[in-house]
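Internal tracking record. Fields below are filled automatically when a chain is submitted to the structure queue. Please do not edit lines marked as system-generated. If the sequence contains nonstandard residues, flag them in the REMARKS field before resubmitting.
Queue: standard
Priority: normal
Entity type: single polypeptide chain
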Amino acid sequence: GIKVSAKMPEESLDSFGLIVDSMFGFSFKGTSARAPFDQIIASINASKAVIVSIDVPSGWHVEEGNKSGFGLREPEMLVSLTVPKTCATKFKGKFHMLGGRFVPPSLAQKFKLQIPAYEGASQCLQLPSYNAARL
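SYSTEM-GENERATED OUTPUT FOLLOWS
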């Protein structure tokens, strides 16, 4: 079975094989996390668990990545929502996924977004790492 926790466990996170990171949203631009998030980030970073980050890894600046060094370590997978954020150019993990078909063609055209084609009814696709910066 899959072990799911709704709150931060007291014990080491090494018993978890996978951690889904979605603590902060894309608007986070701080230089450090306040309690209790600083300890949560430290515990996740100290674990051996694989990290999957949603949109922007927690503690990363939306444009500059983990420049301050206090954010989460490099996730194995980044799931960008709608379009990759600028910090995705700093992502060095194994898998970069793009989720959602949320951008109307008129909006993509207005902001000159290069939205890749989704196959059929698919809601996500894998991005080659070299393409992430161009989206």
